Amino acid sequence: MKNITLERVIKSVLGLAGIAVVGYLLLRYSTLVGYAIIAMIFSYILDPLVNRMQSAGMNRTFSITLTLSSLVLILVWISTNVIPIVANQMVELASQLSFQNIQSITQKIDTQLTQKFTFLPEGILSSNLATVLQELFDVGEIPSALSNIIGIFTNIFSAALIIPFATFFFLKDGTKIRRDILKLVPNKYFETTLSLIDKIESRLGLYFRSVMLQSLIIALASWIGLSMVGLNNALSVGIAVGIANTIPYFGPIIGYILSIVVSIIEVGNFSLVLPCVLAILGVQILDNVVLQPIIFSRSADMHPVAILFIIMIGAETAGILGMLVAIPIATIIKITFNQISWSFNNYYVFRVGNSPEAE
Q1: Is the dihedral of CA 68, 74, 80, 82 positive or negative?
Q2: Engineering a disulfide at 234: which of 165, 227, 277, 314 sits with its beta carbon 3.0 to 4.6 angstroms away?
Q3: CA angle 109-262-144, nearest 5°?
Q4: Rounded distance, CA 223 to CA 284, Å?
C-alpha cells in the first residue's frame, strides 16, 4: 500500500484510457486494420526474397518494386485465367442444385442407407429436406445476400489498392517502423522488447511462408488427383481443398466432405465417391508424409493436442476465421509469455527493487 502514490494512480488511469482508445479505434476501423495485417503477412512472406535480392547487390527499393510487380502480374494472370474457370464451374455446379436434383440424390442416399443400415427409418434425409432447403434458400434473404456480395466486391477493390501500397512500405521501412516503436519503450525494457519482436516476426514469417507453400502444393495435387478420377469441377474443389488445408486437423475433413458432395451432385450417384475419396486420401498422405515433416519441421512449435484445442477455441470464438488465425495468435501469446518469463528470471530490472542489491 505504501507504494501507491498519486503519480502511479494517474499513470495507471492514463494507461488504461490509452488502451481503451486504441481498442475503440481498432474496432471502429477494423477493415483497415485487417488490410494492414494482411499487408504485414505479405511482407513477412516476401521479406526473405527481397533480402536475397538486396544482398546480391540490388537496390532495396527496386527489389521491392520488382517483387511486388511480379506478384501483381501473377495475381492478374490468375484473375483473368483461373478465376473465370472456377466461376464457370461454380455456376455449372449451382445450376445442378435444383430442388428436383437434390431431392432425387437425397432419395438415393436414403435408399442406400436403409439397405445397409436396416435400423434407420425410411426417408431419414428426405423427410427433413424441405426444412433444410427453406433455411438455405430463403427468398427473404436474397436482398441481404446481394448486399453482402456488393460489399465483398467493394472491399476487394479497396484491398487491391491499399494492401500492395502498405506492403511496399512495410518492406521498405519495416526496420524504421520497428525502431520508432522501440523508441517508445523504456530503456530498462528495451532488450526484452527487441528480442520479443524479433522472435515473433521470425516465427510468424516462417509459419506464413510454410502455410502458403503447403496450400499451393495441396491445391495443385488435389486438382490433378480429382481430374484423374474424372471430376469435372476438379479445379474449384482443388483450390477449396488447398485453402481448407490451412486449418490443422479440420481442413482435411472439409476436403473429404467437399469432394464427396460435389461428386454426388455432379453425376447424381455414388460412382465417383470412392475415387474422389482415394484421390484426397493420396493428397493427405503426401501432406502428412512429405510436406509437413519438411515444410513444418521448424515452424511447428506446439504439441498436437494443444493445437487441436486452440483450433477448437478459435472455431467457437469466430468460426472459420477464428480457426485460420488461432495458431498465429497462440504463437504470439506463447512467445510473449516465454520471453517475459525468461526476462523475469534473468534481468534484475524486472525484480523487486529494480537493483542487483534486491537479490
Answers
A1: negative
A2: 227
A3: 105
A4: 13
CA atoms of 357 and 132, how far apart (whole Å):
71
Q: How many CB atoms lie within 10 A of CB 200?
A: 17
Q: In terms of C-beta density within 10 A (0-12 exposed, 13-18 middle, 19 or more buried), how is residue 233 classed?
A: buried
* Cell of residue 181, nine digits: 516503436
d(CA 76, CA 54) in angstroms, rounded, equals: 26
CA distance readout (Å), 333 to 199, 307, 310, 329: 12, 13, 12, 6
Short-list 253, 250, 228, 255, CA closest to 239: 255
How far is the C-alpha of 303 from the C-alpha of 53, rounded, in Å?
Answer: 36
Higher pLDDT, 290 or 358: 290
User: What residues have CB less than 8 Å from 286, skipping those under 6 apart?
Assistant: 217, 218, 221
State the average pLDDT over residues 109-122: 68
CA distance 271 to 247: 29
Global pTM exceeds 0.70? no
Model confidence at 207: pLDDT above 60: yes
Convert the pLDDT of each residue in 58-71 to its tens digit: 888 889 899 888 88
Distance CA 260, CA 281 (A): 12
Which of 23-27, 195-199, 355-359 is modeled with the greatest confidence? 195-199
DSSP 8-state code for residue 99? H
The string of DSSP letters for 35-79 reads HHHHHHHHHHHHHHHHHHHHHTT--HHHHHHHHHHHHHHHHHHII
Q: Which three cell numbers stand for residue 88?
A: 464457370
Cα separation, 119 vs 106, whole angstroms: 18
State mean pLDDT over 241-248. Answer: 82
Sign of torsion, CA 203 321 235 82? Answer: negative
User: pLDDT of 159-184, one tens digit each?
Assistant: 777 888 888 888 888 888 878 877 77
d(CA 44, CA 328): 13
CA distances from 91 to 223, 266, 274 (A): 18, 12, 25
